[in-house]
UniProtKB/TrEMBL annotation:
Keywords: Signal. Belongs to the UPF0065 (bug) family. Coiled coil: none annotated. The keyword Lipoprotein does not apply. This is ABC transporter substrate-binding protein. Residues 1-22 form the signal peptide. The keyword Signal applies. It comes from Bordetella genomosp. 8.
């Protein structure tokens, strides 16, 4: 007579044990490394830390930022691509190290397909800017000067960066002959521009909004196909007679390629929560960036990345930038 009760007790114990085990093994059950492949203090670092905090709140685990800079961002990307694919090591980066650097630098030991997108959290336009004291008041002034002499130059934060390729595209499409001078990053470039060592720069809107607003920089054009809602007074290149431009920058979260699907979905849900937070959206607008709902759809993000890389492949080939 006691056996049914014993069996019931054992069954209940087994069920409770299974549930406890499942709960204990739920992803994530430990802190997550959040690799930013650039030094502290820049726009990628600032945005990445905001996203890390938001994801941590959603996941209930610490998301620990680690700056792993080097090789224009390639060092940090490679580290994530080669990490354990469970999803405890993530990447937050601007677009260049994903879609451009593998095309420009054949020595890097990863390709875009080695990473799985979790979501693109923000887009920002590229602005062609000159120092406030520059004699060039319009894009036409810059083009005329660039056709007349080779002594003037433009800056970028490194060979293969989005701004480098965008600026070389200006030379190609406008028929100018400006010389490229690479710097370590935007802060150094702004100092060089103030000193008169650099004539112009294609700056990400998220970095340029402050210097444009306080008068240090004069914007001549945006490189997007349409005017940016965050910079509505700045005309496009096409409006000013230089066609063939639709270049911007984005910031996104990535995992190693072989991350389990269920873990990827958990992380994607956390990224969506960040992107749907009105405070985050408003903060991005203040920075000069936009949050697009479709960028939380992994399938659509993969399509977008493929299209962007195909476009960059043509540009890199036309400019003969591959090393």
């Amino acid at each position: 007579m006691k056996f049914p009760k014993l069996f019931a007790a054992l069954a209940a114990f087994a069920a409770a044990t299974c549930l406890a085990g499942a709960a204990q093994g739920a992803f994530p059950d430990k802190p997550i490394r959040f690799i930013i492949p650039f030094p502290p203090g820049g726009s990628t670092d600032t945005l990445g830390r905001m996203v890390a905090r938001g994801m941590s709140d959603k996941l209930g685990q610490p998301v620990i930022v680690e700056n792993l800079a080097g090789a224009g961002g390639a060092l940090g990307v490679q580290n994530v691509a080669r990490s354990n694919p469970e999803g405890y090591t993530l990447l937050f980066t601007v677009s260049g190290p994903i879609t451009l650097i593998p095309l420009v630098n054949k020595a890097v030991r990863y390709k875009m397909e080695d990473l799985e997108p979790i979501g693109i959290v923000a887009h920002t336009p590229l602005l062609l800017v000159v120092p406030s004291g520059s004699p060039w008041k319009s894009l036409n002034d810059l083009v005329v000067a660039g056709k007349a002499t080779k002594k003037d130059n433009f800056a970028s934060p490194g060979i293969g960066s989005v701004t480098h390729v965008a600026s070389e595209t200006v030379n190609l499409q406008a028929g100018t002959q400006f010389q490229h001078i690479p710097y370590k990053g935007t802060p150094d470039i702004l100092i060089a521009m103030a000193a008169g060592d650099v004539q112009w720069y294609t700056i990400a809107g998220i970095d340029g909004k402050g210097p444009v607003a306080d008068g240090r920089l004069r914007p001549l054009a945006t490189l997007s196909l349409e005017r940016s809602p965050n910079f509505p007074s700045i005309p496009t290149m096409q409006e000013q007679g230089v066609a063939g431009f639709d270049i911007s920058a984005w910031f996104g979260v990535f995992a190693p390629r072989e991350i389990p699907a269920q873990n990827r979905e958990v992380l994607n849900s956390a990224v969506k929560a960040v992107m749907n937070d009105p405070a985050f959206v408003n903060r991005m607008k203040e920075f000069g960036a936009d949050v697009k709902p479709d960028d939380a759809d992994i399938g659509k993000v993969k399509t977008f990345l493929g299209q962007e890389r195909a476009s960059y492949e043509k540009t890199v080939k036309a400019l003969n930038l591959s090393q």
